[in-house]
Amino acid sequence: MCLAVPGKILEIKETGELTRSGKVSFGGIVKEINLAYTPEANIGDYVIVHVGFAISTLNEDEAKQTLKYLREITEIEMELRGENEIF
Length: 87
Prior knowledge:
alpha+beta, 37% strand
């Protein structure tokens, strides 16, 4: 199964059309992500990221709803395993 996760762009490095990258936050975890496929994305925008590449933009409400669902899934999995804290 493949999973793409929404993240918020914190910083953009304009190094070239194919090497455009930036720092993207996934609920506090920040990763360097390739932004070449989303030239329209700006700082503060949310993008869908798959294997290190931003593949599309999405609005803030959609991103927050998706992140909420992912947290709920994690909480359910932890309950089933008998764990107490998410991270």
